[in-house]
Input
Amino acid sequence: MPTTTPETSTPSPLGRATPRVDGPHKVTGTAQYTSDFRFPGMLYAVPVEATIANGRLVRLETSAAEKMPGVRAILHRGNIGPIYRSTLGPGFEGIVDERRPPFDDDLILYYGQYIACAVADTFENAKAAADAVRATYDRQTPNVDPNLVADDEPSVVATSFGEVNRVESERGDAARAFSSAPVTVDQTYVTPTETHNPIELQGTTAVWDGSMLTIYEESQGVFNLRGVLAQMFGLPQENVRVITKYVGSGFGSKLWPWTHCAIAVAAARQLQKPVKLVISRKMMFQSVGHRPRTQQRVRLGASPDGRLVSLQHDYVNAQAMRDNYHEDCGEATAFMYSVPNLRVAFGRARRNVGSPTSMRGPGAVPGLYATESAMNELADKLKMDPVQLRVLNEPKVDESNNLPFSSRHLLECYQLGAEKFGWSKRTPAVASMKRDGLTLGWGMASCAWIAARFPAEASIQLRDDGTVRVACGTQDIGTGTYTNLAQIAADRTGVPVDKVEVALGDTTLPAGPISGGSMATASVVPAVLAAADSAGAQLRAIATSTPGSPFQKRSADDLAFEAGRVFVKAEGREKGIPFAELLRSARLRVVTAHGESAATFGDPNPKYSMHSFGCHFVEVTWQPEIARLRVSRVVTVIDAGRILNPLTGRNQIEGAIAMGIGMALLEHTTYDPQSGAPINASLADYVVAVNADVPQSIEVHFLDYPDLHLNALGARGIGEIGLAGFAAAVTDAVHHATGVRVRELPVRIEDLLGPVGS
Ligand code: MOS
Output
């Protein structure tokens, strides 16, 4: 007898292109973003920004503003009430980049620092009042010097996540090996300040009833925000609830709490009314983080046949005056290639800017731009194909710790990428390739991103109508987390994806991971699987204990729960009973099960080196007559474990490539040396890549090898890796077309005027 699939069983949605389950809510306008929540009597808050970047606030004149129509309060240091400081706790508690609470003292450390806040009955009245507040300053010259020289700091320094050794990784004697290396590269690469520009502005709606504080915030980490607010307002954690139903993207700027949130809470506390505070696009450039400027010296030494003998990566990132942000540019350096002598070290330079923060692929993205650019320069010096150079230096293990890689298929990425791109047709001489009267440039680079898990909890409910609810206090920041959770729960409970309700973004749900580090999916998988297993165990127990059940005489161990049915293992699924039927016969509405899983991130004794890998092949077209440079074609291959949803997965990589075009050619935040203000603080002046900048042809390939060392589904993360390395592939292509090596991003037309290639 051939085995037949029971009619009730649905094919697993895992690995299938699954449209976003939240898509209809978004396109019909029923998805509620933070600023969509409204409450009776709600007031509006607009902060007042400092117009100097360094100095002291001497006087604040608020009396005119206080008398304006609709104004309820002008809050400032003298009347806002206590806002306590917070500290970093154990594990993943209390993380903040800008630690100083709002209005904590009279020191102005960066342009746009909040010095007061107008609260009124309408947004317009609040804005008018905020504009009417007058400040007098004792003004000092700000330091926004773009040239970064490391400040004098000890060898172990504080960062937003704890203490870090400034020598991040070291093996052999890199300096000595470099000095005797036959072929060397010694270059400095600069990445500019970049500002996150999610469409949704940051904001808080705070509701305080006297004991319970409820916050609606577009947060990438509701539990961390809850913990920090509990500290800042002296409340038990259970008296703080954070709700984040939808996030209009974040790119890292919404990972950790910022000062506007505490201002909104303090306003709600003082006025006993719900308060909404949504910051402006200009404020987004000042007070909610940015990717800091980096200056990275990379020294490579190689033998004439192309084997690396030495790699030194010394970098400096800008940071704020009082905070401790570290942009970990060395994250991928120590394990990327085989090299016996290596040293990665960093320093930081304090500037009068708001605190930097994580921005998509923090560390590895600017870091790989530098190291991959240096590899391409080395290939040039060796007159060797850049793919061949990388193949030659592919490591067998992670040489920084001698751990095996959990799953590394980078060589296959190169092979597939080169084949799909047609790389073998590349002629290496500058400006040697033409098409339709345009000069072509072809470049490539590798990429990597960490794979790890944060702690996670989740619950699954099976219901007597055959529907399922899965809940986890993580967030969907536009990446597809609602859909992923629906797919996993559907797979485990045997119901179709559209019968799964997903609850996210609320601290009353089981504690979920931050939507950061590309770790949300990998983290929630084992928690959801554990919850599903536990639900199955409960069903089996119900099946054996319910009067009238066909399994009443069986032991629970004889039974299984798969594909939505409880059945006797020895008899097969076909003779099983759908869980909904079982629940109805037992007169149960729901079975609820909890699952949790531990972190691998920060594991002091890891058994494997876990990362995702990939490579980009990029074509640019160059018209020297009119100095027109375009990215015309991209092939990207990603090895990120098993891809749970190729549709949202591809979308992540395509989005990262669009952002990579912006990083390579357009994005940079510029500070005015006089005022210290970010002067291109608008979407008109801070230029991001738009559809017109993105080529028709972006090919994304996933290798799809499950990484079972990370979780039972073998899924790693894909939110960030697509941006890593991309800019280096573009600048390599630019060099191939124009002969110009641009070592400071973004590539400017001025950099390319008058080179060869005409
Ligand atoms: Mo990402 S920078 O971890 O949001």
